[in-house]
Amino acid sequence: MSTPTVYDVAEQSGVSIATVSRVYRNPDSVRAQTRDRVLEAARRLGYVPSGSARGLASRTTGVLGLCFPDYADPDTEADGADAEDDDSAVMLYSDQIIRGMERAARRHGYALLIAASLEGGPRSLVEQVAGRVDGFAVLARTVPTEDLELISRRLPVVMLAGPREIDHLDHIEVANAAGERELTRHLIEDHGLRRLAFVGGEADSPDAEARFAGFREACRDAGLPVPDEPAERGRPMTQAEGARAAEALLDREGERPQAMLFANDQMAVGALRALERRGVRVPQDVAVTGFDGIPLSRIVRPALTTVRQPMRRLGEEAVDLLVRRLQDRVREPVSLVLPVSVAHRTSCGCPPPQHHS
Which domains, ranges and CATH numbers included, belong to the chain? Predict the structure, then answer.
């Protein structure tokens, strides 16, 4: 398959080649509706503007990159059919970050190159992106630390999510532990639940482990047993794995948990379906919670109590940090922790809100 060209984008979006060029060189000179149409066509085709012409004088490409693991969940995509053709309903964590980055990149006059770590692994991902961008954001667990060290000597790199592994890189994360701690305290103090089961992710998932740490802290504060390991783990953290984990918790000997707390919304949504199939009522028989605040969490029934993290803002802040780093390569590295909030919905036993949540 041949590489898409500026001519393909112009044809797909119904504009002239000059207009496509202006969208990438001087986006503010193009009407927003036309600009969106061109960028959408470019995304659909997989077109990345050549940096050769614009970069001869400045030695820049005008492109920023994003590297992230492939988080595709086929069950979530199937849900889109039930959501009144609302594409936003199936947007996952990485989709929301991409949307935030696209918005901020456009504002700064940059294009965005997106690379998901599929076949070929992280090394080929880096090779694919590093020579074609002015700087890039990397989601935790996407690229080995030693590779990032090498790349960051040439290009600005912002780390997204997870702990700060490299001190001299800009870094953004959300308050994972604090959010899960607040959610767990809500179940214990406001709903009087004592038998809690946390379903985590892979042990090397920094966000999921931080959420488990917040859960343990709330249990310790309440004088409840503090588990060393999650009750179950989702590998990967998909709806299917959430359903499997919920079934496993139901089938264990002893008393059933009063609440199942999942490390992300996708697993929690899968659990809701599995519990319904087994005739277990949520929240009357067991409370269920998630983490992330993806759009699907509002649409499922019962609506999912979750911790909302500012996913689009993560993407926007990443671009802002990259642009500032490009303007000043020697400034002190920045580490941001973005706040989260608990969305109290019916899956934990809270009454339905009187307004749209």
Answer: 1-47 (1.10.260.40), 56-174+311-339 (3.40.50.2300), 176-309+343-348 (3.40.50.2300)
